[in-house]
Amino acid sequence: MNSIIGMECINCREIISYEPDRVYYLCPHCGGNLEVAYDYRLVKKSFTRQTLKDNRDFSLWRYAPVLPIRGIETAPNLHIGWTPLYRAEKFGRQLGLSYLYLKDEGRNPSASMKDRASAVALVCAREQGITEITGASTGNAGSSMACLCASVGLTPVIFVPERAPRAKIAQLLLFGARVMAVKGTYDDAFDLCLKVSEKYGWFNRNTGYNPYTREGKKTCSMELCEQLQWDLPDWIFVSVGDGNIISGLWKGLRDLYGLGIIDKLPKICAVQSELSNAVVQAVKSLKDPHHIEVPTVKATTIADSISVNKPRDGIAAVRAVIDSNGAAVEVSDTEILDTIRLLARTCGVFGEPAGVTGIAGVIKKVKAGEIGSQERVACIITGNGLKDIDSALKVAGTPALIEPTMEAVEEHFRTAAAGHPSH
Length: 423
Description:
Mean pLDDT: 95
Structural class: alpha/beta
Low-confidence stretches: none
Radius of gyration: 21 Å
Largest sheet: 6 strands, mixed
Shape: globular
Order of helices and strands: EEEHHEHEHEHEHEHEHEHEHHEHHEHH
Distance between the termini: 61 Å
CATH topology of the domain at 85-111 and 212-395: Rossmann fold
Oligomer: single chain
Number of helices: 15
């Protein structure tokens, strides 16, 4: 806590003095989103490559010295972070990439990257003595908050759009959250959640509103750098909805760079569905990097976790792309669904639609000749495929139903071989 300089506005760049006993949301001057600014000279006295090497806590809490918390005494006891990083050699060869890495965030407790944000937000709330917690979500952020709250005996109130996937609703209910299914979109749920939290004074976990969520998500890029033994990738690809994940990844990299722990910054590619592409539109139409305008779209993508009309952290997302000299690309929902199957069959990693959208972007950029064969590419798989079985079954199909006899089995294989001579 003593290492925090203040809260900096992403929009107007004003720095607000930091008070440990206060919860921060938006900039009081312009209403822009805030991010935590640290005194790197102070942090680096106790946070270096060597201290990380000596640290046996393989979770996101290994980065506690550069998180806006007093300590980890009030942290949930679930294991969050230090998710596996795989080198996808077979898949990489198919694409013509020598160095392709996948970070599987679906291995977090609630099966998505959102656990990182929820964990830091929850500690911040508990340190303030706040027990009433709320948030809006298409499912992942809400089920994450419900999961972690359940582990410490709290009951959050979660607002979701009426069309949130059943698996995510099931998680919310089983974790004991009070679920408010809103007749409308994620944006409708978000706005209603803001009104409720303002009226009752509840702690609001909404991304693109609560700056502590970005601090949790930044630990993913910090881990990535460590797991690659500081041999950083040239590119990091990630799916984008409200913009909080990509801005969090970029914040983690900037913090490491400011601390002198890394000496270069990767380029970041924002990948969106063409049916929810506000950030891509903003990047492509950008004329003045000091004046970013993110449009509102009518999102209809099958990738519910990134289906957003108005990206609440859109300016920070665009800044991450521009400042990293990165890129923004949109893919079709068909490409997203095809990538679920391709990733599962070549890497053994099962991602939900939003989870694999970043990989769909890699495929598109490689086919366009915009990624060199020797460039090192890392992609964040943001959520597990079990989150949205209905979408997975659209590309997986259903098994043939046969009689329980050997003859039926043999006939099945003869038929299959006739249809696939190479088998």
